[in-house]
From TrEMBL:
<keyword id="KW-0663">Pyridoxal phosphate</keyword>
<dbReference type="InterPro" id="IPR015421">
    <property type="entry name" value="PyrdxlP-dep_Trfase_major"/>
</dbReference>
<dbReference type="GO" id="GO:0000271">
    <property type="term" value="P:polysaccharide biosynthetic process"/>
</dbReference>
<dbReference type="Pfam" id="PF01041">
    <property type="entry name" value="DegT_DnrJ_EryC1"/>
</dbReference>
<feature type="active site" description="Proton acceptor">
    <location>
        <position position="183"/>
    </location>
</feature>
<comment type="similarity">
    <text>Belongs to the DegT/DnrJ/EryC1 family.</text>
</comment>
<dbReference type="InterPro" id="IPR015424">
    <property type="entry name" value="PyrdxlP-dep_Trfase"/>
</dbReference>
<dbReference type="InterPro" id="IPR000653">
    <property type="entry name" value="DegT/StrS_aminotransferase"/>
</dbReference>
<protein>
    <submittedName>
        <fullName>UDP-4-amino-4, 6-dideoxy-N-acetyl-beta-L-altrosamine transaminase</fullName>
    </submittedName>
</protein>
<feature type="modified residue" description="N6-(pyridoxal phosphate)lysine">
    <location>
        <position position="183"/>
    </location>
</feature>
<dbReference type="GO" id="GO:0030170">
    <property type="term" value="F:pyridoxal phosphate binding"/>
</dbReference>
<dbReference type="GO" id="GO:0008483">
    <property type="term" value="F:transaminase activity"/>
</dbReference>
<dbReference type="InterPro" id="IPR015422">
    <property type="entry name" value="PyrdxlP-dep_Trfase_small"/>
</dbReference>
Length: 377
């Protein structure tokens, strides 16, 4: 039987193993020099924007909303075409999530829909770079700022990409990353928050570490003793350990090659599928240089499920990304109803993620293409 092809997987080489082993042999396993190095390495690919490393992409979202001051009575305008965490992290802070519709071609939130969703209670606009294609970040930032809100870019799919010549991580007030194994680089589990504003950065760092204040100049009771630390605002333990940050820095050294290979594989799929009746290949808008986390094929005429099952039966681990967030029962129980965002529901009904990761071989892509062409023949 042919090798099973998952839709995504990590790429680990001897240098990654050596980087982790070096930390394991050292004095620091948790918060130490590898964390600062990884944060600096990440900033180097996000236009110099400082970063805070955290334990997951979900933690990054939770930290970012905390840094933005999101709480009860606030609204967060959010795309529904994302993993549930983008919206759930805001809801966990007590905010009301307002969903804005997406383009049925790219899966990215549309600027007019965001503009229509904003109210005086809007605190944050949360956009996702679906599949690695950056959202219209400059226009979304303008809409958010005109309303006195912040723009959060969920860049879980897009590290290494650019929008109109500027790197992902440099355009939004807050940018969150995920380093799960299927993403564009990995720390096993992990994430980060990039913040342009030093005040937002300080809040993010504080929330990551229980809100602890160790700087004597900032303490209310600085004469308590050298051991003294204070909590001025609640936080959580979202510290990413040195051992995982060492893996992240090693992976970042190969990010350019990862992105280049993903683009090459994406182009190979385009060339092999663009003339197939019944599917639509992904769209790249002018000004975008995507990092391509996913190859999001759109399957027309209600045949997505049949193609999904056909490929799965043949050892090709396609996936669907994602169920519209408000379809999840936890949001349905809050009163959200299907039909809220027609563009997102159309996109969901068609989307099928094909295998895509840097070590995928050209022959593997050709196998997937051949199976899809055979299905539609």
């Amino acid at each position: 039987m042919a090798e099973f092809l998952p839709y995504g997987r990590q790429s680990i080489v001897d240098a990654d193993v050596a980087a982790v082993a070096e930390v394991l042999r050292g004095d620091w396993l948790t918060t130490g020099p590898a964390v600062e190095r990884f944060e600096a390495d990440l900033a180097a690919v996000t236009g110099g924007t400082p970063a805070v490393a955290v334990t997951s992409g979900t933690a990054a979202l939770h930290v970012a909303y905390a840094a933005a001051g999101v709480g009860p009575g606030d609204e967060v305008v959010c795309t529904p075409m994302t993993f549930v965490a983008t919206a759930a992290a805001a809801a966990l802070h007590g905010a009301t999530v307002v969903f804005a519709d997406v383009s049925p071609e790219t899966g990215n939130v549309e600027v007019p829909a965001v503009r229509a969703a904003i109210t005086p209670r809007t605190k944050v606009v949360a956009a996702v770079d679906f599949a690695g294609h950056p959202a219209a970040l400059d226009e979304l930032a303008q809409v958010a700022h005109d309303a006195g809100a912040l723009l959060l870019e969920d860049a879980a799919h897009s590290v290494g990409g650019t929008w109109r010549g500027r790197p992902v991580g440099a355009l939004a007030d807050l940018t969150t990353f995920s380093f799960f194994p299927t993403k564009n680089l990995t720390t096993a589990e992990g994430g980060a928050v990039s913040c342009v504003d030093p005040e937002l950065l300080a809040r993010a760092r504080g929330f990551r570490n229980h809100g602890l204040v160790r700087d004597r100049d900032l303490q209310r009771f600085p004469d308590e003793g050298g051991w003294h630390q204070e909590v001025h605002a609640f936080g959580l333990n979202y510290r990413l350990p040195d051992v995982l940050c060492a893996l992240g820095s090693s992976q970042l050294s190969r990010l350019d090659s990862f992105v280049a290979r993903r683009r090459a594989l994406h182009a190979r799929y385009d060339a092999g599928l663009s003339d197939v009746d019944g599917v639509a290949t992904p769209v790249t808008l002018p000004g975008a240089q995507p990092a391509w986390h996913l190859y999001a094929l759109r399957v027309r005429d209600g045949r997505r499920r049949a193609l999904y099952e056909h490929l799965r039966e043949r050892g090709i681990g396609v996936q669907v990304n994602y169920v519209p967030v408000y379809w999840h029962p936890v949001f349905a129980d809050l009163g959200y109803r299907r039909g809220l965002c027609p563009g997102a529901e159309t996109f969901y009904a068609q989307e099928l993620s094909l295998p895509l990761w840097p070590d995928l071989r050209d022959t593997d892509v050709d196998r997937v293409i051949d199976e899809i062409r055979g299905f539609f023949a």
